[in-house]
Here is the input.
Amino acid sequence: MLRKQMADKSIKARIEHTSLSPGRLFLRRLGRNRAAVASAAILAILYLSALLAGFIAPYAMDRQNRQASFHQPIGIRWSDECGWSWRPFVYDYRSGKGITGYEKAAGKRYYVRFFVRGDKYKLLGLIPSDRHLFGIDAPGKLYLLGTDRFGRDIFSRLLYGAQISLSIGLVGIIITFFIGLTVGGISGYYGGAVDNLIMRFSELVMAFPSFYLILAIMAVLPTGMASSLRYLLMICVLSFIGWAGMARVIRGMVLSIRERDYVTAARSQGVSDWRIITRHLLPNTVSYVIVAITLSLPGYILGEVALSFLGMGIQEPMASWGNMLQAAQNIRVLTSYPWMLAPGAMIFITVLSFNLLGDGLRDALDPR
Amino acid sequence: MSLLHINGLQVHFQTEAGLVRAVDGVDLELESGRTLGIVGESGCGKSVTMLSVMRLIQPPGRIMAGSILFEGRDLLALSREEMRQVRGGGIGMVFQDPMTSLNPVLSVGEQIAEAIEIHKRTSRRRAWSMAVEAMERVSIPDAADRAGDYPHQFSGGMRQRIMIAMAIACKPRLLIADEPTTALDVTVQAQILNLLRDLQAENKMSIIVITHDLRVAAQLCHDLAVFYAGRVMERGNAEQILSNPGHPYTIALRNSIPGFSSSGERLQTIGGNPPNLIDKISGCVFHPRCPTAHSSCSDLSPVERFVSDGRSLACDYHALGEM
Amino acid sequence: MYRFIIRRVLSAIPLLIAITLVSFAIMQMAPGDFLTQMSLNPQISPQLIEKLRVTYGLDQPVHIRYLRWLWGVVRLDFGYSFAYHMPVIKLIAQRAAATLLLGLSSTIFAWGIAVPLGILAAVHRNSWIDRLTSILAFMGISVPTAFLALLAVFAAARTGWLPIGGMHHMSYEFMAPWQQFLDLLRHLILPTLVLGIGMLAGLMRQVRSNLLETLRSDYVTAARAKGVSERVAVYRHAFGNAINPLITIFGYYIGDLLSGAALVEIVMAWPGLGRLMLDALSGKDIYLVMGSLVISSIMLIGGNLLADILLAYSDPRIRYD
Amino acid sequence: MSSYKLIEVRDLVKHFPVTSGVIRARKIGDVQAVDGVSFDIAAGHTMGLVGESGCGKSTLGRTLLRLIEPTSGSIRYEGQDILRLSGRQMRPLRRKLQMIFQDPFASLNPRMTVARIISEPLEVHNMVSDAERNLEIERLMSMVGLDPSHAGRYPHEFSSGQRQRIGIARALALQPSFIVADEPVSALDVSIQAQILNLLVDLQKELGLAYLFISHDLNVVRYISHEVAVMYLGRIVERAPVESLFAKPLHPYTQALLSAAPGFGKDQRQGPVLEGDLPSPMNPPTGCRFHQRCPCAMGVCRHHDPLLEEMANGHAVACHLWSASA
Here is the structure.
């Protein structure tokens, strides 16, 4: 007994701390890729802002100001001809002579205040609140990125739109991945007739002209449909098209890992199927799957954008980056109020970040 | 004058983990018409040395120092264009895996003819017929018909014959064969070894064979160079080295091969593992695993010295000295 | 080879039937039809609508209508467009021509730039040109088509250098043939750039990574050992093998030409199939929708088949029988 | 050392169907990987199995452990036909039958530490209590010559020779009596190869293990085996005690293999060098499978399949040259 204890102690003491798991090595390599780290940070900020949209946005999603239609962005200032201010402030704007354009009403400063009361919202969809990160006393206006036709604050709507546009990718990919993992896993692990059937079916799905098909499905939805239902249906349709490719990737991965000697070794030792799948197959697919998810996620975001842009997706007054961009389609709006393109820039930044992060993950996984 | 003379060659690879001194001061000499075997375990720098002769070291590898004289000209000082003439013209090379070293989308005839076109400056048609001749020389049946076939249509042994035909098509003075039989089955390996021996007798060319198998080297080579950790441990006449090895590493290497010692007898082993070339070893590179290491071996790097006609050793305490 | 093609074409038939069946079913799920919208117009009498309903066969049960439509398709009769008052096939032929023109020009543009740039980036790996092209490629992959198209329109409107949309100038009819040609070219430039940039970026990355892979291969080293020049090693040996995956991608692009251009067409007022499809969908112009779907499915299947055939020619290891 | 028959293999056959067709797979032929193989292995003894790539030796090894289900035949372990056992009944027997692999990189799960790799079989079979597990890991690691303080490391931190030792420790964890070693030293450097071969021999002496030792290297097989079987295209063509086989090979294929295997010194070959390559196992030649490459082929070889017949002292050969009936 004493001998056992001593051995126990000695073995623990002697295990060196230098040893790095493959996962740690992966993270360490990823950490050296500055673009990927920056992208991850940007994405984290974006998702966090979307989550706390109600708190961060100075206005509610549908707060209109008929007197401020197509208001240009209002810059926050720290100084003017009267000198510096230790508090940020904005000027007031009055509507000008023409139909468009607002002129600066100089002189009066409106200070930006923090943790102010404003429009009511529900934090995380649960907690009712009316505190906002920042705001301004009426009649001051805080349109960081300008307003749209109805005088709604674009910055606030971008944050609310992010809730839709960013979550659609995440939820969509999770559904796709879940179907893909199940179907591809079964197909790869069991093989034979099941495999053959599933693969033929996935080929059929992939032979559909997917964009037109999605368009057709979205087009036949009744116009009066609740937007949350529409949102769900859109995810389902996008996932239905996407699962086939994912299933084939996972099937290929399972097939190759199933043939590795360490799986054979586990089988030869009487390790159960379940344990082989959970201990040997899945942990070794995880990193590939993360890369695959990161790289295919932008497809869902862009899918929502395309559908909503064509008026087949998220409907007004709900905000999504796609339908906000739709408002810029009018040539007169586009040329006179270029800030309407802001949602496009947001989509671009998001998709770029996902692509850079995915590429970094792939490099870290398979360094050459 | 020797056909090939390598002097103080150093090749380094800058990797993520650190600087790898793959070849760290190698001297070699090969007389015309002879076969030199380069033996050693994986990662000992034998392939890198020969790729340096062809100047085919790709980044992150770099030749840091040394000279490689081929027929009196320093290959490392040649222009790119001059070097291209040497490759395939003066020196032919055969690689380990005939499966991956033949271009899968070009017919084998095209691949052999390509070498001929470059070095002989002849017409396409003439190059093709010379390619067929080269295939006949390596005993590929129905060479004329099969020249239009693609690599995947040949068996492993036939592919290696095609690689050899490609390397010797322009009658090089030196043929470098990098593990030419490792990827092949034993019976096919014997065919290829016979072929190499016949070709040498016919063409009077020199051959360098890189191999990890001392027995393959014993079959084919006049001379031997034993590599360890990017350095030459021992070189000289093959028969002499195998019957009476001088360097402790050569002795250990030979004795660890089953079949050398008779069956039932316990194999002699070399303790420990081959060194990681990133960590610099002070003194003799072999001393951590050497069964006869002296205390000074860890401090002083042994100088290669000649012991008898053509034999040289890099060991300060070699057994041959006492003879 | 011919047997393979015939077999593939034959196996495409059940696929097409399945696709049309699904599409027909989807269209049926929509409440109402084209005539329902017409009936909201007080100037059209209910009698007339009922008559039209019989004429168009909309009074028949679904399966009869589908079979009728299918029988028509076999005879190359894709039905009649309610909104445009003309046979679907004629309408599609017009619009598909415009889409194909755009698709073709952007494909040529994308491949013409992506392949040399990709090769350059791979050969000079980790050089400034590699880094620059890779940054541009990432931006190109990530920019949403609709956003890019809007930016292009914005730029065109602000500078006035290029037309902001459409395919022809208003006075196109009165131009001399060479003026017409130049006018078409001017209208083609922006949509081509917008559609091409997305393709170009992805393709360039693909060319680069494929070539890097083959440049590392043993047969390229073996070729160098033969004394071939660096150019021959890169272009004949490495690129010759790197091209195979690109051919598959090429087939995919061909297949995707019709639906891939939809967003650009809509933003830039290009009179192609994408706009037609969108209008048809919102107008519940069912036969027009079906016709467009069939055509784009055929393109998709044909593109993949084309890729397989090209692949067999470029890679001797692939044999179909 | 007792030498009762631990393993008895009779008429073992494994055919892999080759299929073609897209929608409905049609069978277009069989790869006859193993085609009617019989042999015994005594407890504590080593049977060497040699042959060139594609001759079916690996398939045979995996079939013995039921990692591949054979087409027909019987495999008895201590008299019990393991092919008749259900998966559940097979589980306790798995402990007794273990395997060592060729590739030291592919055979260890890269995401498990050495301790977990070695302890997994212990957990699955409840071999030791949780409390004793660390002690057992330490014992196994020392036994195969690994430093127990490295138990927390991952496979990628070891050299190939050390990885092979981990694989051996894993196989030993269940205290087997029979181990299939599938080319365990082919991927290793010569100096490491000798270490592993010595280790296997030591373990055999210490634990009374029986091995089926698969290799393409005649010298390695000669060193480690008590008895050797030579395989060609799914068949055993010659089987004999090791001394007898190397002193007096009977089958022309064995003779060719022996003369092809390089030894020290030049031109010491006696036998002929074989022409041609191994035929495809999908359509093996009729008659004797070796007749197309055989330097001594006779008319009868083309049509009649020779049987494996015992000549003397356990030396059996399948060749018409030696057949009494021919």
